[in-house]
## 1
Amino acid sequence: MYERMMNSKLMQGKALPVLIIIGLILVFWYVMAVKLNTPWQLGVYERAGVTEWTNSQFINDTLNQDRPVLPSVHQVAEEIWNTTVLKSPTSRRSLIYHTWITLSATLLGFTIGTILGISLAIGIVHSRAMDKSMMPWIIASQTIPILAIAPMIIVVLNAIGISGVLPKALISTYLSFFPIAVGMVKGFRSPEQIQLDLMHTYAASKSQVFSTLRWFAAMPYLFTSMKIAISISLVGAIVGELPTGAVAGLGARLLSGSYYGQTVQIWSALFMAAALAATLVSLVGVVEKIVTRKMGVRT
Amino acid sequence: MSNSPVISAKKLSLTFPSNDGPVHALSEVDLDINQGEFVSFIGPSGCGKTTFLRVVADLETPTGGEITVNGKSPHEARMNRDYGYVFQAPALLPWRTVEKNVALPLEIMGMGKAERIEHIKRTLELVNLTGFEKSFPWQLSGGMQQRASIARALAFDADLLLMDEPFGALDEIVRDHLNEQLLKLWADTKKTICFVTHSIPEAVYLSTKIVVMSPRPGRVIDVIQSTLSDERPLDIRETPEFLKIAHRVREGLRTGHAYEGK
């Protein structure tokens, strides 16, 4: 009876489908790891003069190479464990340290990008001239590959004496202001005509219409935009570390990993970045829930 | 003050440009509305009854003729917050509670908090919404939402109330009830009310003056001064006097359609 209840609970919830998908990914991962690491393993055996091996020994060896083409999941997990829990967070060998470097640039860039995006949207909604003149430039700015422009931003800012976290943050800003600006223009324009007419009958000023109507009407758009913006802020911060020979940050880990063929290091940095992105997006979601509840949205 | 009309229109016209040529929403409308009158505007769609109300509210600009509201231009009257406007839909801000929605015009007009609280209390009493101060609009029925929007229009004590088919989306029973309440409110506050409607019984039941309009071009066909007493129970609608006025309204509307057929 109890078992059946557990079963039905598992079937009804999201847990079972998620577990099945994770299981399938793990199986696929291990199959690919064995497959991709086989050529190297054969070379190792040949050089060592090993001529006979069992299947289980072979699979075990392919999954535990020092520099595998595709590291196995447990290698990545072990690397993450070793570089987070077992290292002091202030150590340069700690993944926490590198994550914090990237996170600080991400958050700074995201904050500037959000403020910039909202400011632009306010200008665009209230000024016809800005609407006509700014929008094409805002869209054009996003057609330039960030990888091409990132080193130039860093070099130019260094030349005028700005270094440290700010140049990287500005690359995040460059990416993140866009969804905020576009989303908020739509959000500030989302009040219905009848609501605008109502404000008109009160002889409300533009700033009153903004602070009592447009701002609140734009809230759902703000959070949707912020979820996109915070994840591409992270991408921006990582990309900002890549072409500039940064010595710290998740991007730097990726870069040094690829210099020295440390694929396990690369994958653990990738997993860390993914976990960080997921955490940031869900944090925005939590704030959204709190705000919408305050705004009386039906729950 | 009481001698000069609250609203005075002379040869008022409004023409909208459209792809199929100009649309004459209002054509040479002459109308005076006096202090304390309850005036209904009735007519088929496109007869300009809503447009007339929107011109009074300075939501549309007339293209010809003259109109004064409290002796001023509609723009000056709007800037002076001379009128409260009730729209077809409640148009409550969904993120504000009932009391905060009623507070909206008061906040915009810069009223102090203590005074605001007193005004909110009084107007919510007028529309029988006491006890629902902290409710959000989605927690109220359609009729209650519209009552909250009437409270919002009453909150800042404008002497003129403009109502654009406020009960059009509500069912018959709720509508009867709200009509009764509205008459009581009108008797209590002595406001001048302009009321747009599609319904002949509603117009006759509520009004001291009925303006019958017809479309293309939008114009006034007939202005009927009601002979009913101010004391109006709901069953007054079965009296011969009531039916006589209703008949005249219907005749007016029919004339309008005959004109259209030509």
Note: The two ends of chain B are 44 Å apart (CA to CA).
## 2
Amino acid sequence: MLDLSIGELDALVVKAYRGAGFSWGYAQEAGATAAWLAMRGLPSAVPFALLLPSIEDVHSADLSPVNRDPDSWSGSGKYLCPVITGCVLSDFGLAEVAKGAALTIHSLLYPVLLVPAIARLPGSYELQINQTRVRCGQHNVELICGDVNTTDTESGNVTIDASDPVSANLAVRQRVEVDVSTLDVLQSFAHRTYVPATEASRLAGAGAGLLDND
Amino acid sequence: MKSTCSLSAAGEVALRAPEKVMSLDRLGVLHQSRLSFMRVLLRRLHRQQWRFERTRWEVDQHGVGVAVYTATGPQRSYSLIAFANDLDPSKRSDRVIAEEWDATFTLFDGVPEQSDLDRLAGNVPKQEAGRISGSELSLSRANRSVRLFDYVRRCLADGRQPESHELDQVGYLMRTTAVYGSGKFGACDRRFIAERAEFAEPFQTELLSVLMIRAFSTDIVEHLAAVDNPEQAVPLCINLKRRLGIGNSTGLGMAPFLVNHPTLLNQWIVARETALARVLAQSHVTSTEIDCFTDRLQRQAILVSQWQTSHELQHTRIKALSHDLDHLGKFLSSMDWSGHLPWQTLFTWAEQNLSFEGQECVVSLMFEPYPRLVDELSATMSNDESLHFAIDGRMPITELQQLLAQNYRFTESFDPQSHRDNARFWYASEEKLEPRLGERFEEEGADLEHPLATARDVAALRTALAASECTQTAEFLLEQPQYRHTVRRVQQSKLHPYSEVTDNLISSAMLPIDLLRCKLSFFGAVKFDPRSDRWVRITMYQHAPVLEEIGTSGFADDWIYPPLPETH
């Protein structure tokens, strides 16, 4: 296991998500999502390492909730990406849900990655992800029942309903432990954003040339 | 010519407009001021009477070993752990791609145990290839100035003090080549220490590290001189120690910072512009305030006379600045201070008669007599960027377009077909992830470009919005997610009008050193010496009190201006 700072995880996930073929704006949200979850002790690096191989190079439109009825969101492809869906939720808001109408999001990959987007919205919401129920709002989250991990929630339908405010206050974690194989996956995606070094770029790209040692 | 700082009916002076101050030809000539983070740090250390102690010095005759310096404030202690190295001169390089240095450092949160030192000894000397933990707040390294270090070592070993003019030529014994902070390589994230009063302003951990590295640089030269000649060697006298700052060599790695932290940049510039507006609004000036300004002007002229560079553009700017200060001195001799808004009169004259470099220098000098107006503004120079991260999806497209018209006029001239306007791309090299600038039409890798081409991206956004039938930001971004990072910036500019550098950062005419100069001036650096258009050497803490003077009557906040020559 490697002990990472939250900032390192954020930066790594931004690059990895970008490396998987998505826009910088989405990548920034992916990094913030990972950091938010890690600070609350929830799965962060692992679901991203599992998510990216399943969505790499898929056009983001095919991972987006393009069908948005008041009670049901779904995409045109096989799955929805939780980062993109989180952005859309955040951008459009959950006014209908806040008024009491439950919303089901269909075939969402790694639903735990949707939690931060909902927790940042005004109001409080209960999420049912398969057998797991969590309550979130006011930048906070609490588990009602089940287990928020990634292995049994690879994808699923997520139901979002208005709820009472979150009562628990999770202690903030300052570090995140990431196992080597997860790190390898994220780094290999991040690596796709680096330009291979050449002798020319080593000299010109960083602007050396004059003696740098006197 | 009319000054851009207009007076409102309420007697307040308006801030200079973003389009005036946010261009690279202005940001690239900023000077340190009372608001610079080094001066903020030293004021706090002095006010709170921090104590500094070298608690460990285990360095051998080859200059290899470990040293610990502990700083103790009212609530906490921090320790600089230094690993001294006997570097093969052929390996000495200031580049990020170097792999060994004369000394490496970390700032430890508290007082380290032996087990911490053992752990860090296996990691800190490796720098980017090692790992530090949440107990560490910075990671840095420094190389000796070949020009000065050996000279001072020889002098001290011979039992004599080095010549002060030789010290002034270089200004430092060692030069840091990277000072990493917040979260880097495993270090503690800033967000978890931002609530500590001593770290309220930006970059305080990094600059505390550098302040203590300066003490190490004089300790190690004294140590080696004593090794060379145990019988005769003398320590460096305190007056000369004060004369030595610490150098820094900074390249493109720092350049993207201001672009990647737009709301923070806004806080820095607004603080500076607010300070200026407050000073300009003073209706009367006392003789003490005039004397202070005149004193700093004279001492600034000494600083400028010691400022050397072989970079042609900067050389020209320094010559102009020197002339400007002279010109200002003459103007002051006939200045009528009893008139209405005398600083406004002076600044209007400066705007009409001085170079940009000179004008911005005058801005900093005008802060000097006014600690009560200026110093408190440093508390506004940090922010929680996460509060401004979320996109407002409900913002009507028309409002987004208004923001473009209001805050992004500089992008209207961007020509997507022009090679000149699109000449470069910012990227991260596979090699130690060094940030670099590529030539788009000559090199591979433009498909891996980093999102720093604000002018191009905003120009493209403007065109896309005009062609879109969407009425709301949320709909537009769902259709065209490639504009998400740009829309975030544009929305942030609504409450942060000083958040954008108003130049095209991929133009063939863009000078990265202008971005470096802006950031480093806020640190409190002086004597900017560009070594190319892409990296710069600077001097920090020259003439600052040495550690044992902090908290004593020997401290004065005018330290950054060199002392006037003693008259007999």
Note: The CA atoms of residues 73 and 105 of chain A lie 5 Å apart.
